[in-house]
Amino acid sequence: MILSIILFFATLALILLIIWWLPADYFINDKSMLLANKIQNPLLYKILQILKNIIGAILIILGVIMLILPGQGVLTILIGLILVDFPGKKHLLQKLVAKESVQKSLNYLRKKMKREPFIFYKES
After folding, report:
1. Whole-prediction pTM value?
2. Whole domain around residue 35: which residue ranges?
3. Which has the minimum average pLDDT: 32-41, 60-69, 92-101?
4. Structural domain includes residue 121
5. Which residue among 41, 82, 98, 121 has its CA within the 20 to 30 Å range from the CA of 30?
6. CA distances, 11 to each of 15, 45, 51, 90 (Å)
7. Which of these, 44, 58, 46, lies nearest to 15 by C-alpha position?
8. Cα–Cα distance list, 103 to 7, 12, 83, 119 (Å)
């Protein structure tokens, strides 16, 4: 019971940190290699990339669990997908953030953190 409460708040804090950290144009910008642009040491980059993927996978698993239990399941899965590297990632993220409810949730959190809202791709 205590572990689930700790995990809930830790996940929430991590989600908020990632939403705060992402640039407003993340969902429309093809330059998603933010980590690669800032780290020059190849070993450090690889270690951080592995950690990022592990944290992303954990968030995806927790998000799926939160679809059944109380919590922000879809938002947690979305943040996990943002962190994990895999082919077709951008396309899947575009499909997930195409939902107006997801966009409103993300931008509500950005507004509360005094960050500019995310810009989303609009299909015509």
Report:
1. 0.64
2. 2-101
3. 32-41
4. no
5. 41
6. 6, 24, 15, 23
7. 58
8. 25, 17, 18, 9
Residue type, 66: M
Residue type, 24: A
In a domain, 117, yes or no: no
C-alpha to C-alpha distance for 42 and 46, rounded to whole angstroms: 6
- Residue where the block lists tokens 């409460």: 5
More confidently predicted of 83 and 39: 83
Q: What is the band of 123 on the pLDDT scale with cuts at 50, 70, 90? A: low
CA-CA distance, 92 to 44, in Å (whole number)? 28
Q: What is the mean pLDDT of residues 14-30?
A: 83
Domain count within the chain: 1
- Confirm whether 55 is domain-assigned: yes
d(CA 83, CA 62): 14
Task: Report if residue 109 sits inside a domain.
Answer: no
Nearest to 82 by CA among 100, 57, 114: 57
Higher pLDDT, 64 or 1: 64
Q: Which two tokens stand for residue 59?
A: 């968030």
